[in-house]
Amino acid sequence: MRSFLLACAFFSLAPLARAQGGCQILLELQDVKYDTAHPQQVLDFFHPTPAAADPAPVIVWLSGGYTGLQPPTPDPCQVAMYSTLLQRGFALVLPDLRPSTAYPFPAQVFDCARAVQTVKQRAVAWNIDPQRVFLMGRSNGGAISASVAYGFDLQGVFGSDPVSMQSSRPAAVYLGSAPSNFFAIDGAFPGTYFGQPTLADVSPNSLMLGSPVWWLTALPGVPVPTYLVYKGAIGTPPLADVHDAWCGLDYGIALLSRGATLGFQYFPSGIDGTNFDAVATWFLTLFP
Question: Cα(263)–Cα(160) distance, rounded to whole angstroms?
Answer without folding.
Answer: 35
